[in-house]
Amino acid sequence: MQDVQDMLPLFDVESQTPGVCDSHDARKPGVGAPYAIDIDRCMHCGDCVRACLFGAIAAGPMGRTLRILEDRCTACGACHEACPTGAVYERRER
């Protein structure tokens, strides 16, 4: 799986400096990412990648398959809010 930093040029964006998320400690270790990506709804715009300050979204070959890396996700919801198609969703929603 390709690291999100390697993927940024595909979306013509620069690397962002990680910030601080209010809910950084809200998720218990080992619980898993509360968000997932519905690939059928994803239009590969890169908005979720740009919104994630923690590099928690990784791409497969050619940047087509995205997934949320559980060990990096802080459950802040930035990717969910940034997605224009609703492809990034809370697991409890479906």
Number of domains: 1
Number of strands: 4
Which regions are unreliable across 5 or more consecutive residues at pLDDT < 50? Answer: 14-26
* Structural classification: alpha+beta
* CATH fold call: Alpha-Beta Plaits
General description of the model:
A hairpin with a 6-residue loop joins strand 2 and strand 3 (66-68). The protein has helices at 4-7, 47-51, 78-82, and strands spanning 35-37, 57-59, 66-68, 88-90. The longest helix is centred in the middle third of the chain and has 5 residues, at 47-51. It has one domain (4-15, 26-93): Alpha-Beta Plaits (2-Layer Sandwich), CATH 3.30.70. The chain has 94 residues and is α+β, with helices and mostly antiparallel strands. 15% of the residues lie in helices and 13% in strands. The chain has three helices and four strands; from the N terminus they run αβαββαβ. The strands form two sheets. The protein has a two-stranded antiparallel sheet with strand order 1-4. A two-stranded antiparallel ribbon has the order 2-3.
Quick summary:
With 94 residues, this protein is an alpha+beta fold.
